[in-house]
């Protein structure tokens, strides 16, 4: 029966998402199910029963009039497009997972890079005669970490380049592949929520080491100068978790949104329809990175100025702007 179900879903994959089409699909499924049960009762094997059902009910052009959807079948020629197989989907998710880790690691190294100058500058409290050497070492470490981060970004981008055809060519996912993606994404959401929560908490609590170290009486100059470095260490770990979790989740959404939302195939599972569709690709691209950008702006403003008493205002303002864009510029 699973084979018949998948075949039925493929038949209706690219038809418009209307009540008439859904009614016809349910009626055809009932006919297929009844015929399959009848054949099994007659002693037919699984393969024989499936083959007969598909041969009898597998041509939608012949059944369109009886099902009352001839206007949809005739006016909706099957668009050019390839079907993304389950193996291809699994391969994409594996590559995207590795890319998410490398990208998050690169972002973390960029944040950590400022720790070099901070810590080496703090050590001048112990070795004031070597101030120039320590400053040079700190700056050198900063550029080394940035260089490694850029290398990770480039390598990650190159490794994902061979999947660019998903953006340039029309692809669809069949029912079984879509169900697999939806199931895996729902399973991952608990991990995503945990990583996101820990990452945000680390960013919020990152000021605590600075507060504690600034209050120490021993080596006041050293701890006062080094405290900012510990702030960035916690922020770096938090940002790493946030970026990795968000990027991996977006890989599932990328595949789930290959099917057009106005078709039956674009409504197999709820996760295909929970993303708003915008008027053009530019707006969609901006909105896809909207909240990560807001988060970065908040962190930069907060940790460069330490004006936490006012920097929180960015969140309600960002929420208002996001709501306006979503309501005014969506399809």
Can you describe this structure in just a few lines?
The protein is mainly alpha-helical and 331 residues long.
Task: Please give the structural blueprint.
Blueprint: H1 2-11, H2 19-41, H3 46-57, H4 60-67, H5 70-75, E1 82-84, H6 86-112, H7 115-122, H8 131-160, H9 165-168, E2 171-173, H10 175-205, H11 207-214, H12 220-256, H13 281-288, H14 290-305, H15 308-311, H16 314-328
Parallel strand pairs: 1-2
Supply database-style keywords.
mainly alpha, two-stranded parallel sheet, 2% strand
Q: Give the distance, in angstroms, between the N- and C-terminal Cα atoms.
A: 38 Å
Radius of gyration: 28 Å
| Unreliable spans | none
Number of strand elements? 2
- Work out the strand percent: under 5%
Binned, the helix content reads over 70%
Shape: elongated
Q: Numbering strands along the chain, what is their spatial order in the largest sheet?
A: 1-2
N to C succession of SSEs: HHHHHEHHHHEHHHHHHH
Helix-strand makeup class: mainly alpha
Major pleated sheet: 2 strands, parallel
Mean pLDDT: 78
Q: Into how many domains do the coordinates divide? A: 2
Secondary structure tally, helices: 16
Task: Provide structural commentary.
The protein has 331 residues and is mainly α. It folds into two domains: 2-75; 87-248, no CATH class. It is 75% helix and 2% strand. The protein has helices at 2-11, 19-41, 46-57, 60-67, 70-75, 86-112, 115-122, 131-160, 165-168, 175-205, 207-214, 220-256, 281-288, 290-305, 308-311, 314-328; strands at 82-84, 171-173. The longest helix is centred in the C-terminal third of the chain and has 37 residues, at 220-256. It is elongated, with a radius of gyration of 28 Å. The two termini are 38 Å apart. The model has no long low-confidence stretch (mean pLDDT 78).
